[in-house]
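debug: dumping io for the single-chain case to check the tokenizer round-trip. Nothing else runs in this session.
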Amino acid sequence: MSAQLELIPRYRLMTGADLDAVSAIEAAIYPYPWSRGNFSDSLAAGYHCWIAECAGEVAGYAVVMVAADEAHLLNLSVAARWQRRGIGREALGFVLKLARDCGAEKILLEVRPSNNAAIALYGSAGFAEIARRRGYYPAGDAREDAIVLQLGLR
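debug: decoded output
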């Protein structure tokens, strides 16, 4: 298999069997990661939970909640060894198509102001800031705001 083909993720639904791998990736890439319980609760709630596999391993994942005509991207992450290879951009495209296919007219997400790579990715996809949530994220002894971004899907 060519190296280029290994960078094209294969998507599949997340299952309980993926929770250890997803939790390990999450803990490795974020100072304040989602817990295993957050992922388990998302599965139990019926959210759209997807795994992106590259070269036979979990390279990333996404959790999306869709209600009525609105989607909310709750988590989109790429394992450290797979970052900076276009997988996040490709996975975002997958998520946007998923949201459209589910009938969403817009998609929202929160991002830390300090997460420059994510802000650049979402901005390049056309997301625009619509609000700020004060003190939304833990940040040591303090809290960090969240930038709320939105993209129209129709």
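debug: round-trip ok. The two ends are 37 Å apart (CA to CA).
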